[in-house]
Amino acid sequence: MPLKPSGCPAATFLLQADVPAGLLATFADPGLDLSPGTSASTTLTLTATGAPDGSYTILVTATNGTHVGSASAQAMLISDLAAAVWTDKPSYAGNQVVSVTALMTHGGAPLPNVSVRFTLTKANGSVVTGTATSRPDGTAGFSYRLKGKEPSGVYAVQADASVNELSATAATTFTVQ
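and the corresponding structure tokens:
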């Protein structure tokens, strides 16, 4: 929470976070010393102590006894992450487009705004990669146009994603004739 006082003497602003039950808020530095025209920031860490997965509004207040400022932010609590991946067809011929879809979920619900890394491994072992961000329905897409002289055989596609300290991986295969 950046603070920038002006026209007043130096002061210590004490920070307080208003969080829902089941969340614990801890500031790296709960008291910020500020002089006029300066700014400071600190880190707020949220720890789940029983809150269910979901979106939470966090209100932070800074006060020095005379002046009060506040800000709010949304925090998303996710305790599990799952991935699924598939192609639009099981088999392709040269010059066709392979359309790959990954689905990111938490607690069975779609998870938007997750960066998904796609790794396509050809039958000869060469690798093509790409990234996409999951949409509101939790899906992310990746397309690859097969060239006329692609090696035939089994290709593999893997989708990887991570959110905070959680990660998920899914894989599938398809054939190129």
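(Above: one complete record from the training split.) The chain has two domains: 11-77, 82-176.
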